[in-house]
Amino acid sequence: MKDLFSHQAEQYQQFRPTYPQELYEFLITCVPENKTAWDCGTGNGQVAGELAHYFKQVYATDISTKQLEQAVQLPNILYKVEAAENTSFLSHHFDLITVAQAIHWFDFSSFYKEVERTLKPDGILAVMGYALLSVDQKTDAVIDRFYHDIIGAYWDKERKYIDELYQTIPFPFQELQTPTFFQRENWSLEQFIGYLGTWSAVQRYIEEKGHNPLALIEEDLLRVWKKGESKTVTFPILLRVGKTE
Hints:
alpha/beta; single chain; 8-stranded mixed sheet; Rossmann fold
């Protein structure tokens, strides 16, 4: 698994969007019990922190020590630096396994073997994420040009799975029907730019070219988004839920 987010771990913790509460409430209706959950590729523990309100014990893993240093700390969350494809967990241990905005970085075959090994009978795997955001027509036009034309060549090939709304990832499980969810954030322009700065393609552009590509759209953003103004930023939620066959 690639580690693309250690460098901006603090920024990632500060600016990444959350997931809607309704999503967690839906997942709880799917699990047989709420004793143990595992959040893979947990990053800053955002999802693990929410699961901790529902489960007796939450385990959360990531390959980035720097990300875990930023993670929310609760008494019933245990963090481990481990790859999702090869863990030290007991077999048939988890009621719920979650992967949020990370599965496209995994080795699917190896990870799914680990899911089958560690998931309880009738346990649930939930793969979630969020697609490209939407603000309004003028802002979206600026972001579309930035996403495709300016930093498009700097996205890793795995990004295609998000562009394809996770519908093309391998998913060898008995799939459950899920509702449609959206996450809406009320952000200032500064928060919005902070979020864009967490994109892996932005970081790769900076590494290769030595300057921040966000500077190339700063004037365009200021024309459509006044300083001090807040706007609603909408993220379509990607979600696939299944149980082992």
